[in-house]
Structure formats: C-alpha cells, structure tokens
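Priority: medium. Attachment 1 of 2:
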C-alpha cells in the first residue's frame, strides 16, 4: 500500500516562496508519476503540476507556469513542489498524489492518480 505524507506548507506573504515535500512509502516509487493538486475553500480540487516516473517530463497548469517547479528524488522517494512568487489565489490545501506505477507515458494531467496524501495548508497573505 502506498502512503504519501506532505510537508512544508505554511503562511507566507504574497511574493514569497515555499517548498512542499511529499515522502512516499510502499510500492516502487520510481515507477510512479507524481502529481500535486490543490483545493481552495468552496472549490473543487484541481491539478497543479506533475512529473513523470523518471523525471524527464513535467506539466503545469497555466496559472503556475514560470512560478512553480516540480521535481523528484527517486533515491529519497520524495517529490517536491517549489513555489515562488506566491499569490493570494494560491491559497489552498495542497495534495500529493501517485499514479498506478506502470511507468505510464500518458498525459501527466490525465493519469489515474490512485494514492493521495492528507494535504498541507498553504496560505498566502496579501
């Protein structure tokens, strides 16, 4: 069973930076695409960024391109989300997710993310 634990959230002023981490256990991390999603109050959970199983491919939602960077360390079973130039509209609970571990070549935003962390709160003040 795959378990995902996020960390690194917090309160930051607009224009600031945070780095989220997601530590995975169980299964073979290096076979899995990993994604970050977020859910703001009163809104549905939405895709933020994802990285392929080997790290060669990344994909971002338009609103975070140029500000957020997803990366992974397969030796540490960890995926990161570096968030720069944060805006109040980035305020949300951020979730880490893992796909089925089949070394998928599909579109990173459309994979079946079957495993989810508990989420970490990111609050950006204006």
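Attachment 2 of 2:
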């Amino acid at each position: 069973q795959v378990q995902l634990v996020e960390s690194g959230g917090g309160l930051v002023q607009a224009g600031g930076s945070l780095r989220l981490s997601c530590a995975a256990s169980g299964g073979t991390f290096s076979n899995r695409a990993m994604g970050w999603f977020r859910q703001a109050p009163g809104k549905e959970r939405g895709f933020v960024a994802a990285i392929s199983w080997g790290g060669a491919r990344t994909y971002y939602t338009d609103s975070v391109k140029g500000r957020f960077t997803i990366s992974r360390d397969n030796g540490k079973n960890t995926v990161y989300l570096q968030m720069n130039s944060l805006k109040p509209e980035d305020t949300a609970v951020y979730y880490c997710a893992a796909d089925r571990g089949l070394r998928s070549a599909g579109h990173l935003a459309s994979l079946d993310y079957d495993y989810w962390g508990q989420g970490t709160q990111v609050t950006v003040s204006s």
